[in-house]
Amino acid sequence: MNITRIKLSFAPGLEIEFTDRDRAIEQVLEWSEKSTPYPVVVFGPEGCGKTSLLLQAVEILREQGYSVIYFNPLRRRFEAEAGIESIKQLVLDRLRQASTEHEFARLIWLVIDVAVEALKHGKKKLAIIVDDAFHFMGIKEAAAIVKGLLELIEHPEEKYEKIVAIAATSEGLSRTEIGRHRWAELTPMWNMSRKGFEELYKRVPGSKPSFDEVWRLTGGNPDMLRRLYLSGWSVNAVIEKLIDLKKLDIFVSSLSSDERKWLAEVVEDPDTLYTRERIPLLHKLVELNLIVDEIPRRDRVFWIDELPPERDHELGIGKLAAWQTPLHREAVKKVLKKH
After folding, report:
1. Mutual orientation of helices 22-34 and 50-63 as an angle, nearest 10°?
2. What are the Cα distances from residue 112, in Å, to 77, 117, 144, 287?
3. Hey, what domains does the chain have and what are their CATH numbers?
4. Which residues is 165 bridged to in the sheet?
5. pTM to 2 decimals?
6. How far apart are CA 239 and CA 19, in angstroms?
7. Which residues have CB under 8 Å from 193's CB, separation 6+?
8. Sign of CA dihedral 296, 302, 303, 307
9. pLDDT tens digits for 254-299?
């Protein structure tokens, strides 16, 4: 089926059409045909393209006749179809005024109110897409939001034909809490396949390093490609930015001598985290969004789009855990050398 591919802002003054992810597009179309019996919570490395996919999903679902509610508090973006203007305007007003994490969390509950109102206005095919919201709330609040979406699917106040509910997170601890309650379909998404990433790489203008080098540095992560482009392809600048952003100097300084030794081993193989005494270190790395843990087995039924390899030590991918990107690993390696 032909679908409209949206254009996304890659950098100031540069828009690039949504690239590759053909299988993910097919999966969104499947959800549109059958509904989602549970909210689909998409998780994966920071910058792997979850937001881009969800924005593309908005377009797909609209083309399939859905009324779509989209909320991304991080970008202060809220969209809803016409017919529910009063409550829609309430959300927009509060979104502009919100400044604290607690206020953002309350706004997400309003999104569910918007969905209820849409059903009351006779919307029979409804899609609710919540992006980058768990960043602003505690893990129990995040799980409660997912439960609210499930209640909307299972016990609606009004009859409907189909509902699609999708949320996305890179917050590892939120994912753990949500999964514990079995209120959602936790569905991993990885960085782009080599073939798809090369297509994106070719669309980036100007002189640039070889594709093989960019692949080795990013592991197919489109945000890392963007960061390299914006830094004038300075690898060191991107690494230093990650060190500052993640406060890695403080983090490494807080570790015991044993933990630093273990972390050096994790640089070589993230699966070494899976021993009893190293689990606390694993949790710290997940909380900092440096490591993705509990990677499901490589079976297409469990994944959105293409699967990561079973193992790839060059890219920092193990069977059970993986570095978010090779550049995240390089940032940790650089800080370890200073301690």
Report:
1. 50
2. 15, 9, 12, 27
3. 7-188 (3.40.50.300), 194-296+308-338 (no CATH)
4. 128
5. 0.91
6. 26
7. 20, 220, 305, 306
8. positive
9. 999 999 999 999 999 999 999 999 999 999 999 899 999 989 899 9
